[in-house]
Design goal:
heterodimer, A: about 750 residues, alpha+beta, Aldehyde Oxidoreductase, domain 4, seven-stranded mixed β-sheet, 28 strands, about 30% helix, globular, B: about 160 residues, Ubiquitin-like (UB roll), DNA polymerase, domain 1, 2 domains, five-stranded mixed β-sheet, 5 helices, about 35% helix, about 15% strand, oxidoreductase activity (chain A), AldOxase/xan_DH_Mopterin-bd_sf (chain A), Isoquinoline 1-oxidoreductase, beta subunit (chain A), N-heterocyclic_Hydroxylase (chain A), AldOxase/xan_DH_MoCoBD2 (chain A)
Amino acid sequence: MKTALNESTIFKVSRRDFLKSTSMSVSGLLLGISFSCSDTTKKLTGNPDFVFTPSLFISLNGNGDVTLIAHRSEMGTGIRTSLPLVMADEMEADWNRVKVVQAVADEKYGDQNTDGSYSVRMFFTPLRKAGATVRLLLEQAAAKEWGVDVSECKAQNHEVVHSSGKSLGFGYLAEKAAALPIPAESSVTLKSPKDFKYIAKQSSIVDLKDIVTGKAKFGLDNNHLPNTKIAVIKRNPEPGAGLKSFVADKAMEVPGVLKIFTLDPPGFPTTLNKPLGGVVVVAENTWAALQGRKALEVTWNKGINADYDSHTYNSDMLRRAKTKGKVRRENGQVDSALKNAKKVIEADYMVPLLSHTPMETPCALAHVHDNVCEVWAPVQDPQGARKSLAEALKLDIKAVTVNVTLLGGAFGRKSKPDFVVEAALISRTMGTPVKILWTREDDIQHDFYHFPAAQHLKVGIDENNKVTSWLHRSVFPPIDGTSDSKAKEASGAELSMGMIDMPFAIENVCCETQEATVKTRIGWLRSVANIHHAYAVGCTLDEVAQARGVDPIQNALDLLGSDRSIEFNSLTTEFWNYGEKLEDFPWSTARFRKVIETAREKSNWGKNLPKGSGQGFAAHRSFLTYVACVVEVTVDANNKIRIPKVDYVVDCGTPVNPERIKAQFEGGAAFAASLALKSEITVTGGAVQQSNFHNYLVGRMSDSPYETAVHIMESNDKPTGVGEPPVPPFIPALCNAIFAATGKRIRQLPVRLT
Amino acid sequence: MATYQLVVNGENREVEAVPNTPLLWVLRDNLSLTGTKFGCGMAQCGACTVHLDGTPVRSCSTPVSTIGNKKVTTIEGIASADKVHPVQQAWMDENVPQCGYCQAGQIMSAVALLAKNPAPNDQDIETAMSGNICRCGTYERIRKAIKRAPNTTAK
C-alpha cells in the first residue's frame, strides 16, 4: 500500500509530484519517439531491422514482431501479462507475435511502484490509449499506401484490412507508420468493450513455461557476471541497534571466506530504505559465507527497544483500547445511545505482529564499479530502489541501473529496498559483483512486520431490534513510525482501510484511536490495516446478527440502508480513497449490496451442514474493490480446522484478466487462512523469537481452502485492484464459520481452539 | 575442498566443494542450475526439492558428500528434448504458478508422487505435498494438476 505520507517519507517525493506521475496521459506515454533503421537503401517491405517505437511501451519491427514493455513488477499477480495484453488488444496485435520486455527503473515510465493493488487501475486507460494510437497510425499508413480514406481501413489481428478485402501486415506498415505524425489524442478511439479480444478473456501468463521448466530468473538466478562473490550479514537481533565488537578469526578460517567487515547500523527508527547494518561476511560461494557467519562472534549493543516485549506491549494496547481515545469519526452521540440501548455487544480483538515470508527471501545482485551501479533485484518499487541506491552510494541517479527480475513473492516486503542497498554497498567495498542472500532466519527476524493491533468494539441495539450505536477503537503503531519517531498516531490512510469508512447506516458512530510507539520495523503487508479492521468489524457484525436473532447476511443488508454513495463528512481525520477522488470511485453501497446478495445466492448460504461444520460470511471494500466472502469450515474432534469451500463475489469493475483475478482470490484465501490460523511473531528483549518455518508457521495444503469459487461481477466500470482485496473479508468469514461450527468466538489471532 | 563426481540430469559433472556443502548450493553455485530454489535451509519448505534416484529430497539439507553415485535430477532435467514432462504440462494446463518461485520444488514432489502412485487420492496428495510451502496459495491448482497429470501422460 502507498500513502502520500509514506511516499514522501521514504523518497522525499512530494505529493504533487506523485500525483503528476499517476495522472499521466497518453501524451506522456508517447514521448520518446525513436526511429532506428540500419538499412534504408533497399526500401524493402518488412525490413526486420527497422524498429518503429511510437510509444515508450510499444515497438514494432519490419517483421511484424511487437515488443511491449512491462513496467510494473511481477510478484505473482500476472501484471507482466495483464497490462501488455491491454496494449495488444487495443493495437489489434496478435498476442503470439508479442514479446514482453521488463522495464528498468526509470521515471519516464511513470509510476512503477507495484504496491497498493493499483497497477491495472492506474494504467488501464493510458495503455489502452497507447495501443489505440498505434492502431490508428497503422490504419493511417495503410490508407496512405492505398490512397483511400482511413475510415475504410480497419486493423485486425496484426493486419490492416481495407473494405475491399485487401490487407497489409503490421510489419509491412511499420516503416510507413513511422513516417506519420503521432495523431492527436482526440482523434484516437478506444475499442468498444464488446470488441475486446484479450481484455476480460482467459489468458495464461507469459512466464508460465519458463517457470515450470526452471528457466525463469528470480533475484538470485543471474550468474552472468564473472567473479561474483556471495555476502551474508549478521545483524543485531534488535533492529537498528549498534555493534559493540566482533571476533572474525574463526570465521576467516572457513575455506572460501574472503572478507569480513561492518556496515553501520542506522539506529532506530531505521527508515524504510536503509540497511540494518551489522557484520558482513563475503565469500567465494554461498555455503562458505553461511559457515563463516556462523563462526563469527559478535557482541551487540542494546538499543532503545531492548525492553520490547510483544506480550506486554499487546496487553497494554488492549487495555488502552478500552478507554476513551482520540475521535477520528463521529456521528450523533454514541455514549448516550449506548446507555439507552436494550442490548450491548462488546468485544476486543487482537492481531499479532506478522511476517511477509515470501518464498524468495530478500536478495539481489549488485555491481558497483567506476562510479556506476547496476543491480538485478526482485523489487516492487524499482524507482525507489534506484533513488535509495543513488543516495547510499552518493552517485548521480543516472549512474544507477535497476534491472527488475521476477519476484518470488513479495506481499509488500520487497517495496523496501534495504537489501538491494546492502548488496551495492558490499559490492563497492569488494570491488566485485556481489550477491546478497537473506536466509529465512534473516527474513523472519528482520522483516518490516505487519503491525500488531488491538481493537475494542461496542454496539448498541434498541428495543425495536435496531442497531443505534457503533463504537470502534483501534490501537496500533503506525507505519510512519518506522521512519519518524514522532509518528505514533494511526494515519487517515490507515484508518480509511476498513475503520472510518464503515458503511453501515447507523445513527451514532464513533471511531477512536490511541497512540502507539513503533518498537520494531513496521511495514505494509498484503491489504495492510484492512486485515485487522475487517476482522473486527466482520466478526462484530456476526455477533450483532446473533443478538438481533437475524441471519448474518440479512443483518448486513439491513444495516446497509438505502443505496447511496457514502459521504465522509463526519470524519475528523483525512479520508483516503486509495489515492482516488470519491467522485471517480465512490463508496457505493449499491455495489456492496449486490456482491453480498450474490454471495448469498452463489454460496448456497444456509445449507444444512453436519455437526462440526459451519458457514461464515463477511464483506469488505478495499482498494476500491467490493468483495463478499462465504467460508465453510469443518472442525474435527482434534480441533483441526479444514476449509472445504470458499465462495467469493468480487466487483472489481472491468475484469481485465479474469483468469488471474481468480488466481488472486484463490491465493488470497490461502494467504488469509495462513495468517488467521497459523502465524504469529513474538518479541522478547527487542528480539524476534521465531526463526524459520518450524516456529513461524504458515499455511500448507491441508490448511488451505479445498475449493475456492470466484464469482466475478460483469462490469464495464473502471477496473480496480485484486491483489489485496481477497484477504480482508476472508478472515472474519472464517472466524464466523468457526463460530457456526463450534460456538466459539475468535477474538484473537492466530485461531486457537484449545 | 574435495572433488565429487556427480551424475546430474544424466550428465557426469565434477565439482569441488567442502564435504558438508548442501547439494542445493552445489547445483546453484557450482553448476549454475538455478531452477532449484533456496527457501529455508532446513528442509521445512520444499523449494529445493530434487530427486536422488527418483526419490524426492530437500537439497538444502543433503550434503554433497552423501550423494555418491545416486543420480541427481533437477527441474531442468525432467523434460525430454522436445517436450515438457507431463507434470509440467499439467501445471501449464491448470495455470498453477503465481510468482512461480516454489513451483520447481512442487513439481519435483509431484513427479515423485505420481511415479509411485499414478492415481493418488486427496489424502495421498496432501501427504506427499505437505513439505512444500507456497505463499501465493496455489495449493488448489497444484492438487488439480496432480490429478490431471496422469491423463496428460496418456495424451
